[in-house]
Amino acid sequence: MAIYGTALLALCTLIGVALGEALGMALHVKANVGGVGIAMMLLIAARLWLARTGRLTPGLKLGVEFWALMYIPIVVAMAAQQNVLAALEGGPMAVLTGVVVVAICFCLVALLSRSAGAHHD
Predict the structure, then answer these.
(1) Are residues 47 and 90 in the same domain?
(2) Residue 116: φ, ψ to 5°
(3) What total of structural domains would you count in the chain?
(4) Which of 10, 67, 93, 94 is positioned for an S-S bond with 87, CB 3.0–4.6 A?
């Protein structure tokens, strides 16, 4: 049932986009701030939760892994559509937001790596 993996990705994407839009509005930036990254972090968290609770069926795992492999091409395609110059002209808040989001993601990746590694030992 690989379709469940796609459904999980769609749910994470909707939540991530909504949170990215809300974050953009809160920071007074007329853009989605980190919605795709938030969606991918939600997908990773959901996959870990499903694996820990024993609910990650082979079909669901196949769907989630497929979209995990497609992550980089999707992000590159979406980033190509964004207007970087407009973000830079938006002032230092847009640049600061980007730097903070990247730093948070680095920390979360390290945290998730450690927690996943601790369970495999």
Answers:
(1) no
(2) -70, -35
(3) 2
(4) 94
